[in-house]
Each structure stands twice: as C-alpha cells, then as structure tokens.
Amino acid sequence: MKRVFTLAAALLSALGLYAQEVISTKSTTMVLEAEKGHELRILYYGTKLSDEEIASLKDAGYRTQRAYPAYGLINTEEAALAVTHSDGNMTLQLQVSDINEDTWEGGKLITITSKDTHYPFVVKSVYKTYDEQDMIGTWTEITNGEKKPVVLTRYFSGVLPVRVDDVYVSHLYGTWANEGRVCTEPLTRGYKLIKNLDGTRNSHTSHAEVMISLDGKPQENSGRVIGAALCWPGNYELAFHTTDEDFHHFLAGICPDNAAYTLESKETFVTPELALTYSEQGLSGVSRNYHHWGRKYKLAHGDKERKILLNSWEGVYFDINEPGMAQMMEDIASMGGELFVMDDGWFGDKYPRLVDNSSLGDWVVDKNKLPHGIGWLVKTASEKGVKFGIWIEPEMANSVSELYEKHPEWVIKASNRDIVTGRGGTQLVLDMSNPAVQDYVVKIVDDIMGENPDIDYIKWDANMPFSAHGSQYLKNQSHLHIEYWRGFVNACDRIRAKYPDLTIQCCASGGGRANWGALPWFDEFWVSDNTDALQRIYMQWGTSYFFPAMAMAAHISATPNHTVFRTTSLKYRIDVAMSARLGMEIQPKNMTEEEKALCRNAISEYKMIRPIVQFGDIYRLVSPYDDHGFASMMHVASDKQKAVFYWWKIANFYDEHFPRVRMAGLDPEKQYTIKELNRIDLKPLPYEGKSFTGKFLMENGLEIPATNEPEYSKKTDWSSRVLYLEAK
Ligand code: GLA
Q1: How many CB atoms lie within 10 A of CB 316?
Q2: In terms of DSSP bridges, do strands 190-195 and 236-242 run parallel, antiparallel, or are they unpaired?
Q3: Ligand 1: residues whose CB is within 6 Å?
Q4: Burial status of residue 303 (CB atoms within 10 A of its CB: 0-12, 13-18, 19 or more)
Q5: What is the chain's mean pLDDT, rounded?
Q6: With 60 as the cut, is the pLDDT of residue 550 above it?
Q7: Please, where are the H alpha helices in 452-592?
C-alpha cells in the first residue's frame, strides 16, 4: 500500500500537480507546499507521519502558513526578508520555480528556488536533514540578479509556525558570571523578542536557542518539544509574533538592527543555519538531539575525550613566573591531571601585561616573568607528565600596546570619534573585517605553534563588545556585523586547516560564546567565570539544554569563591564539576594533602566515567529552577550499560524530607550495580554494591540521604552524591 502511494505521489509530483515536499528525519516530518508559481508554504512539522497521514493532513483541516514571508504585498505578518531594490521599490513577490533534492552523507539537501515575479531576484530555501539526529538545518541563499545593488534590510534564516495551544517557551538569559539561566514562560499573544546586541559575545545576555513546549508546562522527559538554534556567532534576533489567530510565528536570524546589507549585482548572501529539532521525550529529548548533532557535526573533535586540566587563572591571576608554573604543573600531574593551561599575564615586551590595562596584541613572552620562554614551559610540562596549553585573546588589543602604536587603523573605531575603550580602560576590538587583521590573527597562532609545535591547547578569549560602531576598513559601515564574522570564520578556517589536532577553548568573558555559530572551530567553551558550585548547578543546567557536557568546561576552584564569596565543601565542588568537562582552577599549593587526595580520587573516578559523561545521553531529572531544595540529573551511556547519577542539595534546612528521584534513560530489563563515587561518608549507602533493575530505578528510585555523613568535625552545610551504575 505504502509503495503504491509513494509511486502515485512521485507520478503526480512529476506532472507538477502534487506540490508537497516532505522533509523527514528518523522520527520527524516537515511538510512544505512548494507549488510552482506560488509562494513556498509550510503545512506541518512534528512527529513522523506515514505517507497516508501526510496525504490526509489537508483533509484533517490543516492549513499552510508562509514559509519565508517576504515584505511588500502582504504586510500584516512579520517579514523574514525585506529589501529595497535599486529603483526604490520595497516589495518582493516570490514564487517557487524549482525544487532540487540531493543527498549528503547524513541525509538530504532540499533546495527550493523562488523567484520574484518582476525583478531578477532569487531566494533559495535550503533544508538539510541530519537523519539520525532528527535535526533539520534551514537557511536561505539570496541572489541579486539585478543590474544594480539591492539593500537587504531583513534577512532571517528561517520561519516556523507553531499552532496556538498551551505552548511554553524556554530560553536562556543571564550576564557575565551568571550565564545560561533558564527562563520558562507561556507563549502569549503579542511579541516575544530575544536578541543580542553585544557584537562580539552573543550568549551572555541571552542565547540564540529556544525550546518550544507544545503540551503545557515543559517536562524534562515527556511531552512534545521543538528546539531551534541559530548557528550564528554575532548579533541575532529570535522573534515570536502572535496576533489573534491560530499560529505563533517564530522567526530567527541575524539581528537586522544597524546591519542593512547592500547586495551587489550577482552577489549571493547566505544566511546562517537555523537548526530545528523535535522530540516527544521532553526538554531532555531535545537536548540529546542537539548533543548528538553537535558532537557529530558542529564541535571540533566531538568524538574525542577531553583532557582533565588545571588552568592558572584563579590560582595566580597575572602573577605568572617559571617556578610558579612549574609547581602548578607538578601539582596537577600528581593529582592525575593531563594538561596545564597558562592563562592571561604571560606576554608583553615594551608593555608587560601586569594587570588588565595593557599588552593585548603583543603576543611575545614577557622575559622578566618567563626568561626561558614558552619552549621551557612546554618542556617542563612534558617532564612533569602533562600537556601544555596557553591563553590568547587574538581579536583584541589595548591602546597601550606596540600593536596599537603600529596599527591604530586596525581597531574598531567610528570616524570623527575618539576610540571607545573597554576592560582596563584601554581595551579595543580589532576589526576582523580587515584582511590584514585576519592575517595577523592567523599569525598569532602560527608564531606560537611554529615555535612550540607541542602545545596541545589554546584558550581563545574575547573580552569586549563592539562599543563603537565603526570599521576603519569597510566602505559600508552597516556591513560591520556581517564582515566581522566573515573575517573571524576566515581566520578560524585557516587556523584549523593548519592545526587540525589542536584543542581550542572558546572563551568570551566566561560563557559569552556558547553558540553553535562560534563552536565549529572549537572543542569546548568556558561556561562562566563564576566557578561557585551552587550557581554553576543553575548555569550548567541551562547550558546543557543545547550543549553537550564534553563542551562545557567546569572547574573545581577555591573557597571562598572568588566571584560570590560562598564557601562550599570540596566534595560539593567536585560533584558539580564532574557532571561536565572536569578541570581545576585553583592554587594547588594552598590545598591540604587531604584535599589533594580527594581531588586525586575524583580525577581517577572521573576517568572511569568520562566516556559516559562526554559521549552519553543526558536525562535531567529534577530542576534546580523548580525549588525542590535539590537538583538531579543523569548521563547514560548510549548502550545503556553504564550511567552516572548526580544529586546536589541546593538549600540547607534541618529535618528535610526529599522525595526519591525516579531515574530515566536506563534499560528496564538490565540489572544495575550501584557504586558511590567521591564518597566521604563514614558508612556506605545501603545500596552500595547492590543491584536493581532499570525498571525499579526508573519507577521508584533510590533513597538519597539529605546529608553527607563524614566524621563530625568534617560535616558541612553541603550535600551531594554521585552514583555510578553498571549493568551486569
Ligand atoms: C576572561 C576569561 C577568564 C580569564 C580572564 C583573563 O575573563 O573568562 O577565564 O581568562 O579573561 O584575563
């Protein structure tokens, strides 16, 4: 029956009568209506449908919506595309002219070409399926076939109508040291706008990703949820527009504010990819789709384990010197770590980097601090048994630097205005739109790597927004927000082509570049400059909505915490950091032998669970945002043989009564043996070494004591558990 139907559909399609374009992945279906001579429309996105069900959508009363509304002739809807033709006309009338279906290794590439009815102006709507990951990437390719330039005033990547119902949207917001906070709210009538205007760091204030829950208040492991992630590292706009009708209209793309783009004759503008996914397994289901897809297609080395490192920043800040670095290398090696990263403060000749008010741009070693150069550090690290990594901030300069003295024309600056400075009162952003700056950025990495090919890791930072709108290179100032990133991509592509094995961390004042548009050249990102374990639970929870644990750098740091001044127990700090890419950011010299022993043990246990944390599937269980006094989540290996369960108390009161936590993602038939990791209690938990079926653990769960019970003098007001589950 199915075959007959498919043949009939193919025949009708060949005759040009059957206009439905079905885009499907393993468990999802999107149906477009791409009738030649008509505007491209979308009929359906969600649960996978059979051919028969697709054919009966119209009979079920489903109505199409505009798939890429262009401004001009229907103006009551938010436009995805708006232009001014060279003759001043501001309208578009796009009609489908061609449909092309191709395959690539992960799925299909469907291109629907629409042409304007009057002007030689062409828009290709591309849909790329990532079949296994249930992802559909969509973008547009806009070509000006006119003789003169056309100005694009809006150029979104894609549009998705969402049927009005009990719909909720979850998105991330925050600021420096408070990144990745979850906001969940009902989608009501009117406008909901999520956008970013920083210029260089687009995930501090809000994120370019959302989840749209279709079945009321979102649940972690059940319910239908759509995910949308705009893969663009610059300013973005994600908009929901709902008038008194049946659909919320969702649009996502580059933020058009102050960024009108003049498209020259014959030029094509390609909008960034909007990655859409859908799951019936709740928010965590959508997260798993993003994690699978990100690890396979978007993240550098998504199939390789991340090293356990010590970063020098919170340990010594700018106080870099050879004995100090060697001691830190020795200490991290002795605890079982694998990498040492020297952070800010190592460079500058004429202007040594003593604090944050000089030297960015002068990437030569400060001989007063490090007389034997970087080579000595790399060699010493190797002797101690760890790899070596180094911090740079290549897109930036200080006005107090040799670079600025030589190339004042390289910085972002508006004409007829003074420079506007940032951090330290002297920081400036280099103009990545300038090819000379791109060459210079590549050369920074080339010089460091050329002299020291054994460097294993680079922390690439970016600590300033565009505080002035102005390129001293570009003719058209409104192209800055586009050309900066084209330049960034050019430099990153060249660096990656030359150094494919290098690990590169994406850092931008903490978590300012947690975005799928920035990450393809990077292995991981720094989640936040705030390393306080309690606040990290909230931030890492939100960040895990869209990014996999292997990409989320989480470091054990000192107490009182340097940002919030909270004192948490070392076990608590370890238990939180172990749920992502574990590292340390502390002066080991100041740790007691007992603390070092706890970390040594944690590092060795993390090595055992590392493949589960870094390649497994996330199941978030109890959200810290729901105020139950604790939070809990799991990572489960893809074959369900092993899992890690985390439980963190987030408020401390006497005589508390917490519910059991029902686990998720296990194989109901398998028998799992429980082992507590990072144990500090005098007595083992009652279930230590015992086995339970996955069914029991998922239907009932284990009793987690409200407090840790070490010897009396070691009790603290913090409690947490990490349990390792292994199936027989
Ligand atoms: C930023 C980063 C920090 C650290 C400092 C160094 O703030 O987020 O981790 O590298 O810069 O100046």
Answers
A1: 18
A2: antiparallel
A3: 313, 343-344, 356, 391, 461, 463, 507, 509-510, 526, 529
A4: exposed
A5: 96
A6: yes
A7: 480-498, 533-543, 570-577
